[in-house]
C-alpha cells in the first residue's frame, strides 16, 4: 500500500459520515423530545399569555416600554477608589419568562416605530 492511497482513505473517511451514526443521532433526538414532552412546565400558561398580548394601543406600548427595561438593572461594576472590586452579572436571565417579556417590549417598540411613526430613541 502506498502513502497516497492511505491519505485518500483517511480523507474520504473524514468527509463521509456512516449511516449508523446518523441513525443514532435521530434516535437521540427522538428520545430527548419525548422526555421534554413528558416534563410538566408550570410556567407555560404564563408564557403563552405574555406571547398572546397584542400591542394595538399607543398608550399601552408606551407603558410597556417604560416598565420593561432595555438592560438588566442589576448588572453592575462595584468600584472603590476608581478600581473595580467585582462585577455583578445580569440576573435577568434567571427570570423564567425573560424571553417573552423582552419580546413583548420589542413588539411595543415596533408598534410605536412602524404603526405610529414615533421616535423610539428615548426607550433605547
From TrEMBL:
Family annotation (Pfam families): Mo-nitro_C
Mo-dependent nitrogenase C-terminal domain span: 42-124
InterPro entries: Mo-dep_Nase_C
Name of this chain's protein: Nitrogenase
Organism in which the protein naturally occurs: Phormidesmis priestleyi ULC007
